[in-house]
Amino acid sequence: MSQDKTEPSDNFDVNHGRFRLATTIISGHTFKHLYLSGLRSAILPVIATSLGLSNTTIGALNTVNQATNGVTTVGAGYLGDRYTNRSGLILFLSIAIMGIALFIVGTTPNKPENMNSLRYLILFFGMFLSGLGPSLFHPLALGALTLKFPKQRGFLVSLHGSGGSTGEVLGPIIAGGLLTGAIFITLSWNDILKWSIVPAVVVGFIIWLVVRDLTNTKGNVESFSEYITNLSSILKNKPLIILGLATVLRAMGQTSLIAFLPIYLLRDLEFSFSLQTSFFSWSPAPLLAVPLLMASSQAMGIASQPIMGFMSDKLSHKFVLVPGMLILGIASLGIAFVESNAWLISLILIVGIFAYSLHAIFIAYAINNTETKMRSTIIALVYGVSFMGAFAPILAGAIGDFWGTQHTFIFAGSVTILGGIVTFFYKPK
Predict the structure, then answer these.
(1) Distance from CA of residue 8 to its chain's centroid?
(2) Are 217 and 10 in contact (CB under 8 A)?
(3) Which of 414, 395, 289, 406 lies closest to 58, judged by CA?
(4) CA end-to-end span of the chain, whole Å?
C-alpha cells in the first residue's frame, strides 16, 4: 500500500497547534451537519407535507443539493491544494453560505396556495446554495487534517466523520424540539431557518480566527496548469476509477435513503413510539418522534466511525468496506418490507452505524492508495464523483410516485449492495 510521502517543502511545522486545529475543524463539522440534518430530517419533511410536494419534487430538491455539492467540491479541491494558507477563510465562507442558504429556504411560504413559479425557484435556489456552502468545507478541512496527521489519516478522517455524526444527532433533536415546543420555545420552520444565519456567521468567523495561522504553508501546486496536469495523472489511475464507481453507487443508495426515510416515516407511516415504565408513559407526536429516531440512528455512527477507522488503519480498508456496504444495503432493503416498529427501528439504527462511517474510510482508502501530494483534490474527487449519483433522489422519487415511497428503499439497498460487490473487486496498485 503506497503512502503519500510528499510533505511541505517549506519550514512548516506539522505538529504546531495540530490538536487545536483538529478540535476546531471537527467542531465545525459538527455544526455544519447540525444545520444540514435539521433541514433534511426535521424541517424538509414538514415543508413537503405543508406544501403537498410530490416525491419527484422532493427528489429534485435533493438532486439540486447533491449535484451542486458534487460539482463544486471538485473546485474546492483546487482551492485546498493551491491556497492551503487560506483554509480558514474558505472554511468561514463555507459555513456562512450555508446560513444564507437556510435563510433563503426560510422565506418560502408555508401554504401551497401562496406558492408560485418564483417561490419555487427561490426554494430550489436555497437548496442549491445549501449544497454549495458545505462543498467548500470537506476538501479544505480534511486536507488540513491529513496534512497535520500524516500517520493517523484513517483515524482522523473518521473522527472528523464522528463530529459530523454528532451534528446529525443534534440537528433533528433541536429542530424537532423547536417545531413542537419541546425545548423552550415554539418556532415555525420558516423562523428556524431565517434565524439560522446568525450562528452560522459567528461560528464561521471563529473557525477562521483559529485555523488561519495553523495551515500557513505554501500550496501543493503553484498554478492552475500544474493542477490540471496532476489531476490528469490522478484520473489515469484505473484502480482509483473503480473505487470511484463504488463511491458513486454508495452515494446513490445513501442519498436516496436519506432523502425519503424521514418523509416516509412522517407522511406515510405517521411514525411514533411509546416509552412506558411504572412511573410514566410517553408517546411523542410524529413531528418529534421522526427527528428523534433519525437522531438515534446517527448516534450509532458517533462510536462506529473511529472504531471502523482504527480497524481500517490496522487491518485493511477493504476488510471494513465490503461487509459494511453489504450490511447497509440489506438494512436499506429491509426497511421496505418490515411491518413492526421494533424491526423498523432496528434497521434504521443499523443504517446509522454504517452510512457515514463508510464514506470516511473510502476517503482514507483513496488517499493512501494514490501517490500524489494533492490531498485536497483526492478528497474532492471522492466527494465530487458523488455528483454522478446526484440524480438518484429524483429517480427514486419517480419510483416512489409510481409504486409507493417504500420502493425507494428497494432501489437504495440494491445499488448499495452493488457498490459493495464493486469494492470487493477493487485492487489498488
Answers:
(1) 29
(2) yes
(3) 395
(4) 8
The C-alpha atoms of residue 186 and residue 208 are separated, in whole angstroms, by 32
Q: Output the pLDDT for position 337.
A: 94
CA distance 309 to 315: 10
Dig out the grid coordinates for 203 from the structure: 461560528
pLDDT digits (tens, 9 = 90+) for 160-215: 877 887 898 899 999 999 998 888 788 999 999 999 999 999 999 999 988 877 66
- pTM to 2 decimals? 0.79
Confirm whether 429 is domain-assigned. no
Beta bridge partner(s), residue 281: 276
Rounded to whole angstroms, the Cα distance separating 181 from 179 reads: 6
**Distance between CA atoms of residues 35 and 43, nearest Å:** 10
For residue 310, give its domain range.
18-424
Radius of gyration of the chain (CA): 21
- Give the three cell numbers for residue 294: 433519525
Task: Residue count of the chain, please give it.
Answer: 429
Backbone dihedral angles phi then psi of residue 230, each to the nearest 5 degrees: -65, -35
DSSP annotation string for 358-394: HHHHHHHHHHHTS--S-HHHHHHHHHHGGGGGTTHHH
What CATH code is carried by the domain that includes residue 383?
A: 1.20.1250.20
Question: Does the residue 355 lie in any domain?
Answer: yes
In a domain, 13, yes or no: no
Query: Distance (Å, rounded) from C-alpha 364 to C-alpha 344?
Result: 32
